[in-house]
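User: Could you walk me through two proteins back to back? I'd like the raw sequence and the structure tokens for each, with a short line separating them so I can tell where one ends and the next begins.

Assistant: Of course. Protein one, sequence then structure:
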Amino acid sequence: MGFARAWLQFSLDHRDALMLPFNFSMGVMTLFIAVGIAASLAKHHHLDSLTAGMLSLMSFLLVAAPLKDGQISTAYFSGQGIFTAILVAIYSTELYAFLKRHNITIRLPPEVPAGVARSFEILIPVLAIILTLHPLNLFIEAQLGMIIPEAIMSLVKPLVAASDTLPAILLSVLVCQVLWFAGIHGALIVTGIMNPFWMANLSVNQAAMAAAPLSRTSMSRASGITIC
């Protein structure tokens, strides 16, 4: 009992230092998601994974990290930006693949070093992404008073809330078991569909715990894990 009280007091006194691993992992999960999805999709299109990942990261920061008072907002770096990260990763990589497939690029003579040539080749995709996403973000902000991640979250909010209910969890488990019965990897299918919603809820749970370590009343029910 004495150890528990001592640990509680220690954690409260050094809360900021103890929260650093969370802030730089779950707190910025969307950055990893944006890069990872783009890199995986790039392999499907036989593109350079690193280039696609960096394009996706740039795209996400362009729409989800507005500059306010000289500082970048990180509000959508955690669970609230998951759906935006998924969409911009797919968009930027598919646009990159489209331009590459149609040879819309800057070509340099063969004498130019490969590293320099790749730097120029990526200019067109960068410009295409900036000239499409940035005006769209500005238009949505002007018309709706919210940026793209906020608009996306407002659209999927009912689905996120619905995924945090007992019927949704039971249905997920049922579908998972039916797929297993049919010889299909049920866990892989169900979690692939539901994980973005569960991760959004999990992020809310973690934020609530970080804000009030001794309170559990504001936590959502879905933990983000379904046993199939």
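----
Protein two, same layout:
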Amino acid sequence: MLHVGTYEVIYRGQVVFNVGYVNKTHKISHKLREEMKHHGDLIVGDVKESFYTLSKKLSIGIDWLHRNLVFDFVLKTDDDVFINIPKVLKALNTLPSHIQYFGHVMWRQPVERKGRYKLTPDEFKHDRFDPYCSGGGFIVRQGVIEKIAWYLVFNRPLKYEDAYFGSLAFKAGVVPSKAYDKYFLMRNHKCIYHGRDVSIAQEWTLGV
């Protein structure tokens, strides 16, 4: 049980790390398998760790969630993100039932054809992405995962996991809500956490 201001929130959560491998014979991969056996907090996918394999890892995570867990919400985030858990739980405790997928919404973002983030027309033929939440952190209900899991078989992953998730959600008839944008800040920031100033060095702060 967690007391958040005047709210009393009863919750049970599970933290899971979704990882790939460096090299299947590398000692780090061996240690990951050992940690998975001992702690049960890893999803070790059959995919090599790379910036360009994030969507494949995301697909593995979605499939794992769909097959293994019953939950109200899932938060997808990165390992360099500060999460103010009491504020997140407070928001979820009062979340309207019609909001299914939310975060910092990127609406009709142009597709880049040059540079690190480029996609060729063969990879993605449209000039703009379907609406999606930036990958630093977003929250969805279980019903969204159930809808999206069906589409994994029929859709080739994009390079970018956040736009990929948004495209799957859009195909499933789910559009992200901007109602909680204030909880997802895409910049260096200071926040008050348990009465103290907290400086955030990363680009993302969630739930401040």
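The two ends are 20 Å apart (CA to CA).

Let me know if you want the two compared in more detail.
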